[in-house]
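Q: what does this look like with acetamide bound?
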Amino acid sequence: MKPLLVLTIILHGIMLHGQTVFPTPTQATVNDGQLVLQRKVSVCTADTAAPGLDILRTKVLGSIPIKWTTRASKAEICWQTDSTMPSEGYRIQINRKQIVVSARDKGGFTYAAQTLRQLAESRDKTLIFGCADIQDAPRMQWRGFMLDSGRQFQQVATIKKYIDMASMLKMNYFHWHLTEGLGWRIEIKRYPRLAQVGGQVGHGAEQQGFYTQQEIREIVEYAARRNVTVVPEIDMPGHAEAAISAYPELGCFGQPIDIPQTGFTHNIFCSGKDEVINFLKNVLDEVCTLFPSPYIHLGGDEAPKGNWEKCAYCQGRIASYGLKDCHDLQLWFSAQMAGHLKKKGRKAIFWGDVVYSDGYPLPDNAVIQWWNYRGHKDLALRNAFKQHCPVICSPNYYTYLNFPVTPWRGYAEDRTFGLAEAYLHNPADKISYDGDNSAMGISCALWTDYGVTEAMIDERLFPRILALAELMWHQGQRTDFATFYRNIQQREEWFIRQGYNFGPALKQEADL
Ligand code: ACM
Ligand code: ZN
């Protein structure tokens, strides 16, 4: 290792033969020389279906055909298992003759392939790799991207595009927000009206539709091949207007309801009727058959209690269980649902609203997702830690990438932020992710309020999502902002070639 080069790497991120890698690897040494691949590439592996090889074939080698071999000495690329590597970590050693990739698990091989994808330089039907030695592993175990398919419906191909993106940025969870007041998007065979009626309640051209169970299975499998676990969210008891319009008996008063085209209402699932509790458990049974994820997200955010205050069933439940109030009733309801998931060996994720105040205890499979920094600062985070609940951090300042860089429709100035805020001032970055009282990781989100249609998603996400990926993945010293931004500008063309357009980055030039 040349000390001067190591110094360069620390100061400027990983600058490998003029290339940067996003997110930044933990350690890299740059060596002289390069490996040139052309015509046919020999790849050594014990298993041609091993993880990461699909990405190597389609995203790195492209049109260059592969000759498979099991003899490492003859191969230009070696895919080898090394049980001493950290979980999801990998090593890539490139010399003038060979690339050796070592990892111990699916994540490690997947992310090695994703890094090779960024290192490869394509020139006249050849692929060139600068000689280097890279060792890399994630800072956090939970690295998430959430997409709101409730308020807007996206095509299956679009869902896959953003799963690809998550894997490319070394994120391992795709949190799929599948139910909203404006749309129920998941086919439930036992209750077909949920999707058939609840999938059509929005008024916009891109607000109609749902995913069939066959499509969902295909998406879950597609994601798994890219080391992405799909975590479905069935939001309850609030954000339920689409479901209640399909089955009015799910509401407190059994009446047809209006669908809000923005925001949310008091029309939430009734917590007093046993039939509603059973209905939702039956929904979760089907959800669990579709999604093998250890985590199922049960929502729990923004559930106004006006109807529960007036509902004889809900008030009856409060009285018979000796609950304090309607918040306590939400805790009781959440505990029933989490308990149901616990019996199936799953964990239940809840938005932080459920821990704003104490009450009926949640079972020990509950996970809290801290989100409302603008409204309550770190209240949910503190209370979750107090209750020894695992925490996922997604404070709306600054992980909600639907907040634009400059005001747009319902997003006034106070709900905007730029790349510098996401990178330098993120409350999610001030938390410990290692050791006692640490959080599981960070999620970022793309909500689709106010009509964020498919064509707008890229420009909301890029380039700011690169800052979020950096916080989630990179351990150790971080590059200064000006250099980070310059590296992004150098990489922009590459991301565009991968199919992701860029929107604005900075709120103002002064950020630099
Ligand atoms: C949320 O942003 N309502 C979780
Ligand atoms: Zn009720």
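The chain has two domains: 6-136, 142-472+479-510. The pocket of acetamide (ligand 1) is lined by residues 301-302, 351, 371 (CB under 6 Å).
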